[in-house]
Amino acid sequence: MPNASTWDWNPGRREVQDISSWSTKFEWVEEFHASADGEKVGAVVKTSDGDFTACVNGQEWEERYERVFYLKFSPDGRLTGITQQDGEWTLAVDGEHWPETYGYIWSTMFGSNGSIVCAVQQDGEYGMGIDGVLWENLFANANNFTLGSDGKSTAAVVQVTPLAQADIETFQKGIYSIAVNGEAWDKVFMNCYTPVFDAKCEKVACQVRKSLYDYTIAVDGKIWQREFQCVWDPCFNPVSGAVAAPVRLGGKWGMAQDGEIIWPAEFAQCWHQQFSADGSKLWAIVATSLGKFTVAVNGTPWNVTVPVVIDLAVSPDGNRGAALGKTDYAYTVMCDGKVWNDSYAMAWKPVFSPDSTKVAAKVEKNGRFTVVLDGKPYGQDFEQCWEPIFSPCSTKVLIRAIDGGKFVRIVADVSDF
Question: Its domain of life (predicted)?
């Protein structure tokens, strides 16, 4: 998360950039991106000579490329983009690209220490790179790339055994493992999925498929002593280090921790679980029956159900939860077991204030966008806006938006809603 304590939190509206002028300056302008602090807006642009570059607050990068895409602002406000030149790919950061080029590069991630991490393919082998430095070992296949909270620990699912075309026997014996910082586990599985780090980046857990029909969880290559019909992504308790994962038994879903059932297998679905910061509560999206989704905490579901629930958010104190509900084509925000009164054409993941007392979300209605706080919309809608960010004191909300061809930065008081 970005450090918002140093941002400008003076209330009011400020025009950052007149982006309407960009369309006359460039042959075309792609999707706009906003920095977290709202001080910068950027986009991929095509210049009059047919090359591509990026433009930030009206200033274009000096370098020109055959292609630029996947623009992302880092938490500290640097603009990154994946670039192609002469058939080779690399990452540009504020217009300065990494010195090395690669066969391909994708999935830009940012570390809490300022690092920038990408998935990389080089000479037909795959791995990860931190600030342009690749793993020493690359692999025939790699996927499910992940970055630890320390910004320097990396992991991915990797293929460690060669596989000939249609070689089913070798596949069933196991060809996949997990590579941590480029070093693969000794243990090999038929499949691995979704590696995750613990809070200290000392351990890694993942889903594994032991056979065609048996699934379980592995931690640092050691599997739980029980198999299941299926499992979903594991997660670590941030305090105890225990590993929890949704598991399927007898056609129903429950929750297991370190191989033992802690929520009975009585749900039609159970996934996207997360612990509270103090580790005392475990939240998850569940379906009490087919097509009836809700949120559960420590195994107890909310009373309200809807056909689809996504984007679960847990408050910093761990006592509140919010998620998006969808019925037909309408989205709603569910919070603390209740549904906000209004519905929307689209909504984005809810955001809690640092003191856990308020929740806000970006929403779309009638082709316009705005921010809603505790069910109350801001007094203006926009051509485009980004997810809201609360001030550290929880009394203000930063709204980054495009209004009338201008990129604006609005610091609104919570009483403005």
Answer: Bacteria
